[in-house]
Design a protein that fits this description.
By secondary structure, the protein is mostly helical. The chain is built from 2 helices and no strands. The protein is about 95% helix and about 0% strand.
Length: about 70
């Protein structure tokens, strides 16, 4: 008769272990996403530079069209 209780306790322990590992994984995923976002912001050119680059490309295409 104690065998079902032992199996049930093992299943309960395994599910608890899985839940804690899952929670830790979610936390690590969130940290990794934040790190990736910070790195992308560091690599992204400044906003003013992007605007000047866009305007210079537009002027270049206009000058090519006119010639």
């Amino acid at each position: 008769m104690p065998i079902p209780l032992i199996i049930g306790a093992g299943a309960l322990a395994a599910s608890g272990f899985g839940i804690t590992k899952g929670a830790k994984g979610v936390s690590q995923l969130s940290d990794a996403s934040a790190t990736i976002e910070r790195a992308q912001r560091r690599l992204e050119p400044p906003r003013l530079y992007r605007r000047v680059d866009c305007l210079s490309q537009a002027a270049l295409s206009d000058s090519q069209r006119l010639s």
